[in-house]
Amino acid sequence: MTHSPHIAVIGAGILGMFTAVNLIERGAQVTVIDASSIASGSSGRSIGNVGTQFTDPFNLMLRRHSLRQYRALEARGLDFNRIGYLRLARTDAQMARIEETATLRVQAGFRSQVISAEALTQLVPHMDPQGFAGGMFGPDDGFIDPPHACTMLAEDLRAAGGVLRQYCRVLGLVRRPVGGYRLETDKEAVDCDAVVNAGGAWAPSIAALLGQTLHVRPERHEAMAILLDEPLPYTMPMVMDLLNGEGSGLNYRHSTQGELIAEIHKVDATVPEDPDHYNELCDESSKIHLAEMLLERLPNLPGARLGRGWAGLYPETADHRPLVGPIDPAEPGLVTAAGAGGYGIQLAPVIGQVAADWAVHGSPVSAPGTEALAPTPERNVAKLPDTR
Question: Does residue 230 share a domain with residue 366?
């Protein structure tokens, strides 16, 4: 595009908002449209963990791009609670992989420590380390408040002359004879040169309105506060029992004084959830399951009891990696940015960066290698129930 393109972003969650500001950086005019309010979907129900402790170059590269943008927001006032991130290993093979890839994490710009099994309780004194071979620890990792990040990005959007239309539902798309598109909504129509589908759990239904098929499966996940009789004498880091698909998926961390937060980063849903009609509260069976897992892993917490709980949706893909780019190469003006699963907060900045590149430049010029995220026919396929 040789002129300043007008691009519509559907979805005002953290992924859509990062897409919007990345588009503005590329000189585009931007209109963000959401059927509800900003951060009202999965972004508002996330616990906001941002970690860098991975063992493969591709995941590290993605997080390097994401952390660059988060650091810029942090410098302007976003609270980035750097409590550290401990990713656990259950086998000697996993520990060997952690040790082999330590240099990769350093090269990506992340501090990372290899933690022996004996040293786990130095980081988390209340942890029962039985069954773990060790782990890796990122002391600079932490958590954010996703709605706060979305609000900051919305302020940037408006300051640059962009538009945020909340409570505006997309009803369909018309391909204009002169080129570009008209998005029909329940309010006024939006004429634009390109469209980015950043609809989160609603992305498949939005794709259908655009005349496309997108295989992203909304899967339920649940989080819960753990109340303590008295504050811990240390700050519990983020702890994740899941490495390269192996582990229970249990993760927990400090939240506030006298409170932890925990969730299961792994689901066994047999059917996808309807994002318009799902139970946003924790099921009783889930509370019991989570309590049993925490009791096994943190057996001596002082007066621990379950607090408030809620449910959100992980938009999952068949290969557990996001789909970013045009579904149909013959129609590059329709860009998909969806399916980050349980890593949506971590990956939103780089997904927004890559989606903006596709919409403006026709390829991910600012992040070489992310062509691998394109929703090709081989990747854009139905996801079976999770067996990780």
Answer: no
Do 11 and 133 belong to one domain?
no
> Which residue, 268, 301, 316, sits at the end of a domain?
316
The pLDDT, as a whole number, for residue 287 is: 86
Instruction: Examine the domain organization and report whether 171 and 154 are in the same domain.
Output: yes
Angle, vertex CA 122, rays to CA 117 and CA 127, nearest 5? 70
- At 142 the three-state DSSP class reads strand
Structural domain span for residue 325: 6-44+146-216+319-373
The CATH number that applies at residue 131 is 3.30.9.10
Q: Give the strand order in the sheet containing 170-175.
A: 170-175, 181-185, 190-192
Q: How are beta strands 163-165 and 29-33 bridged, if at all?
A: parallel
Non-local CB neighbours of 304 within 8 Å, separated by 6+ positions = 226, 227, 228, 260, 294, 298
Neighbours of 10 (CB within 10 A): 31
Structure tokens at 347: 């990956």
Residue 135 is assigned to a structural domain of this protein? yes
Among all chains, which residue has been given the structure tokens 């992989």?
97
**Domain count of the fold of the chain:** 2
Q: What is the pLDDT, as a whole number, of residue 1?
A: 46
d(C-alpha 246, C-alpha 8), whole Å: 39
The β-bridge relationship of strands 305-316 and 259-264 is unpaired
Q: Which pair of structure tokens corresponds to residue 326?
A: 């045009």
Q: How far apart are CA 197 and CA 325, in angstroms?
A: 10
Which segments within the chain are labelled E, that is strand? 6-10, 29-33, 49-50, 85-89, 113-116, 134-138, 142-143, 163-165, 170-175, 181-185, 190-192, 194-197, 217-227, 238-240, 250-256, 259-264, 305-316, 323-326, 334-338
Question: Which tens digits make up the pLDDT trace of 48-78?
Answer: 999 999 999 999 999 999 999 999 999 999 9
| Residue that terminates a domain, selected from 285, 316, 347 | 316
Is 70 exceeded by the pLDDT of residue 109? yes
What's the pLDDT tens digit per position in 314-370? Answer: 999 999 999 999 999 999 999 999 999 989 999 999 999 999 999 999 999 999 999
pLDDT at 120: 98
Among the listed residues 205, 220, 217, the one whose alpha carbon sits nearest the alpha carbon of residue 309: 220
- Confirm whether 379 is domain-assigned: no
User: Is 317:379 a contact under the CB 8 Å cutoff?
Assistant: yes
